[in-house]
Design goal:
Length: 1032
Amino acid sequence: MADELHDLLTGKKVTTAYEGGRESFLGNVVTPIYRVIYEEALKSKNGTADHSTWRNYDDLNEYFWSHDCFQIGVLLKKYMNQNGWARKIFVEIRSFWQIFRSFDRMWSFFILSLQAMIIMACHDLGSPLEMLDAVVFEDIMSIFITSAILKLVQAILDIVFTWKNRLMMDNLSRKKQVLKLLVAVIWTIVLPLRWSYSLFLQFTSSLRSRIIRYSKYFPGGHSQDYMLDVGCKKPKFQFSNIQYFGCWYYLPNFYSAIVLSIVMMRGVPIKEKILIILINGKMQIKPLIGPTRLILKIGVKNYDWHELFPKVKSNVGALVAIWAPIIVVYFMDTQIWYSVFCTIFGGVYGIINHLGEIRTLGMLRKKRDQKTRNFFPLRFHKVSGNEANDVAKFVFVWNQIIKTFRLEDLISNWELDLMTIPMSSELFSGMVRWPIFLLANKFSTALSIARDFVGKDEILFRKIKKDKYMYCAVKECYESLKYVLEMLIVGNLEKRVVSSILNEIEESMRRSSLLEDFKMSELPALKAKCIELVELLLEGNENQKGSVVKVLQDMFELVTYDMMTDGSRILDLIYSSQQNVEQTEENFVDLSRRIEPQLFESSTDRNSIHFPLPDSGTFNEQIRRFLWLLTVNDKAMDIPANLEARRRISFFATSLFTDMPIAPKVQNMLSFSVLTPHYKEDVMYSTDELNSKKEGVSIKFYMQMIYPDEWKNFLERTGCEDSDEIKDEKMRNDLRNWVSFRGQTLSRTVRGMMYYREALRVQAFLDMADNEDILEGYDGAENNNRILFAQLEALADLKFTYVISFQMFGSQKSSGDPHAQDILDLMNRYPSVRVAYVEEIEEIVKDKSQKVYSSILVKAVGGFDQASKALVSMEIYRIKLPGPPNIGEGKPENQNHAIIFTRGEALQTIDMNQDNYLEEAFKMRNLLQEFLRQRGQRPPTILGLREHIFTGSVSSLAWFMSYQETSFVTIGQRLLANPLRVRFHYGHPDVFDRLFHITRGGISKASKTINLSEDVYAGFNSTLRQGMHILS
């Protein structure tokens, strides 16, 4: 193949090694390899045969990574030996002894440490330094004998568990196994003998000292002393050399055991690790020594349990009962310490990286001023240039998220209005009018503060500005009132009066004399009149024009007579326009009603007010927002009421403060695909399934009880009072969707994954649209600029592909199965969805009928078959297969046959128990940039993502399991990913480097009974191919 590629690149005539022709590569290269795999799968007898008698995918895959595959004529024949044994790279023998064999260093450390602690406790050491005493230290050195025995056990287990694979092992591996066993046997014999001899020498030395003490009473004592001295010292010197060599042989393994066993505390200094061991000895082992000695001294004359232990003459059973729980807890210490350390580290890591920092909407309000520099580099205050443009983009994205909440029935229409940020040209100057749910009750609080405040203006202003939401609410109310009066009042005199009052207010604020010039105690009355006026304006009833005039007159009199300490300038303005009214102090009262015509009242020759106001959607929204600022109370601070909506907003807001890579433009981002395997699970609940009562309760009723607030929002969106009013076809489909989107169905997963495409369209629109298009909104710009939106559609399809792997789609479609029709409905609703399935047809080859298998990718074309009245799908690609693809585990094989249809640099595999959200899809550009960030020596190949279990509300058990999963994918995987660097692949939200994995064995291991969890083996495979995993 490399030679053919060279000929192709150099312009030479290409001659294929497999006799080129139609389907020659399939017939001459792929099919022989497939036949070997297929025959080996038959040998497995559906996974029930012994593992050593058949080869799996890994065995054959490793062959192509070996040098043998480059030898001409070898191919797979070398993988069959003379006796017919299948050559395997690994033969699994399941046994409880595998627990010891797989973690032998950890168990060795546990056992040796326990032995050392028991010895130290038996010698009643008061300090760890006392272990250096010659007698104590020699007893402690017995741990090397135990280590030799453990090494012997481990060598025997290695031979036993690789025995069935002995004929396929190379000579070097066999020699290593035998040599390892021989060395272990030698040390198991030598060390106990030499240690026993050392004890004998110690006894001899003691005897020698006694003889020397009494040698003066015997003749020739000095010669005897010399002989004893020589006889004792020479063996001691020889033993010392052997002992040193034993230490040299075993200490590396001993220290490796220490490092491996507490690798989960890699960042802890060695002194603290030793301290943990000493604490275990002090707290667990030493308190048992005294009771053990007392129990052993007590003899047993009449044992009551004679039927179970008729010949027992000691208290060994009592000792076992005392020591067994302590030993079990001791061996569990590593897991306990790991859990403690994992919790502490995960919490500190989360604090440093601002994970989970925003858990409530109240915390979101406190974080309002921080910079979301990676998603959109904006600051929530007045800025200039590109940063101001990013403010408008963020507001646009926020509104799209809130609209999605409404379409998903997580919020009501009222909550939608309170959570939406108004789009206006002010955004491009950096000024944001915050959503009402963040400003709830702020204006009323500021009014109460001003009403009861005593002091200087500067202190009052500082107090209000301290809460920036309060300051924004006060400022917006003032500007909104000015805007309403400007639109409502058209009379010249009335305009001059209103303008004079506003000038007085602003001049007082400039001079810092507002509290002196105006009486703040009347502010609640003015607020009530403003509410009454705005309600009349929203009602827009022409018959209420007199009421509007009366409210305006009341507001004028309230301001000039009750609030202003000196309203003479305003009254002088009115007197100057009315020559027939005598200016006296008594006429000040109800002056606006005594002049002709009355102030704000229209006459035949002029109009003072423009009522009703023009029916403008933008103007009505601004008036309605003004009313909400005046009237919304503390209840709005709990918006949204739906717990799922609150969780999603908090999670989205938290992620904006994390260290995300800078998002590129959509046209420059990495492209990616999403793959979802599907078998026979529910696609969408039918109308009959909604109303069926298999267990006494229908699915529809159950969903209404589980999600009562969302059901209420659904009825509000459809304009129905209850489900009995849902009768027409469109509303019944809406009901089916509502129930299906709350179950574990394929339609819910597809809707969530298609948010990726919607997010790319919105982000591409923000990249390419000008300010006017952004102000028009997404829908308005789509109607007015068709060329732009055609580019957006093409760009989104170029960067994102979604494939549903449904092998049985062809057979279900031909048989008229409702599931196939539901799949077609999904494809018609989301035109970018692609479905991959396996087609099985009969063909006549050489006068013989045989089955031909093909992988096919189809899409919906939007039309209907005239005969069957069903939706029509169009074939895009067809790949002929060498045989039936289902020769291994179902789910990984389902993914393997469809992965060829995916595109792009990244791949995300999603199960049917998972969902996605628009606000998370907006961050996909940032996530994919992680593949380009250098972490250590190599960029990552698997990006780990946390998984949210949405079925937690179904039952208490589901709630517990969802929280258990949340704990593992957050705190647990943080530690595994960094700093331990041992995280693999545990769930389908993870994103793969597609090009890396499809060239290195794929992402789905599919051997029967071996690769039951293809997720974990994908992580193993990636790590063995020098891949790197991170947790994002």
